[in-house]
Amino acid sequence: MQFLNVFLLAFAAVSVNARCYKSGPKTNKGNIAADVATVCNFLQGGYLSGEERYQCAVDKSGVKWDFALKRVSSGNTERQILSAECQNGMNKEIGCTYGGDATYSNWYYK
Prior knowledge:
By secondary structure, the chain is α+β, with helices and mostly antiparallel strands. The protein contains four helices and seven strands; from the N terminus they run αβααββββαββ. It has helices spanning 2-13, 29-32, 36-43, 83-93, and strands at 16-20, 45-47, 52-58, 64-71, 79-81, 100-104, 107-109. It has a five-stranded antiparallel sheet, with helices on one face. Strands 2-5 form a two-stranded antiparallel ribbon. A hairpin with a 2-residue loop joins β6 (100-104) and β7 (107-109).
């Protein structure tokens, strides 16, 4: 029982706020998926609290995608994000028909 309580507390500590947009250019995940790694290679690195960076890409069908990554956690020290973690978050957002945004603990993805 104690293990279950610890697990539930750890699970509750992960903050997730996600949404898919209801309008805009209709997108297809398959048209941009290969470019997410390149986008995240540009966005990876050290971020201060509140710092946001942007990168755009044009998919195979000519639709422009505007990506954003922002550190939302507090603290005075720089926090690193690697390309793989960035890709994990961005791949969830490109699954929405019109794109989307989400906050996962330390990072805001758009």
